[in-house]
Amino acid sequence: MTKLVGVSFMLAVFAWSPALAEDTPPMNIAVVSLLDNTFHNIHRGSNGLDNTDESRDVSAWRVPEQSETDMVALLKQKGVGQSVAVLSQTTRAKTTDDGVEDKLSAAARAAGFDTLVVIRPTRYLNAFFLEPGYGLLASGRFTDPPPTCPYGVFIVEVYRTSDADRIDWRWGFATFGDGPCVGLRSVPWQNVMANYSEQDWATIEAAIHKRINDGMARAIDGLDFQ
After folding, report:
1. Where are the domains positioned within the chain?
2. Tens digits of per-residue pLDDT, 85-107?
3. Within 10 Å of residue 199's Cβ, how many Cβ atoms?
4. How many CA atoms lie within 13 Å of 208's alpha carbon, on the beta-carbon side?
5. Measured in whole angstroms, how far is the alpha carbon of residue 31 from the centre of its chain?
6. Is-contact 72 156, C-beta < 8 A?
7. Integer distance in angstroms from the first to the last C-alpha of the chain?
8. Which end of the chain is more exposed for a tag (fewer CB within 10 A), N or C?
């Protein structure tokens, strides 16, 4: 009889424990990408004399839009948030505005979202020569064509829209091992971008989308959304 009373008491305490009874509030998440349409073709040689950096508009790749769509899919796949959607272009602030976090948070809050996920290009001090965003990197002598390496340098941030407070952030790549760059040996390096073939560009485009998607998935796994 004493044992039954003890068990009943333990079950009652378990049931009424505030920590266990508390429900996590559902999250309605808006997604915004601040990546742009600029592709960088960067070479770093054995000395500064053969360093090059060429850029090109790749609007047709729809990198900002695709990264937003992919982020929504990743968050849903990983079960993050009650609802997840891209923040409408008609309500968001211009990405070049000062205080864009406040403006985007306000726009997301007005649209009914309590949480904002931002994909933001940035610099990485351990690879300072990489332009924020994405592109190809090669290192070595021009006489021995180096392997090309698609890179993505960005972070993923989580904001609370009620006060535009940044809850957490993570790099969109490994900060050790491969870093922001993974080899793409199927495309020979071209110092002049005009020399890449149409097939090369198709391969590069697919590699860039994959690099960004993989980086976002990695960031999500380390993020605190509460």
Report:
1. 28-222
2. 999 987 776 666 678 889 999 99
3. 10
4. 28
5. 11
6. no
7. 44
8. N
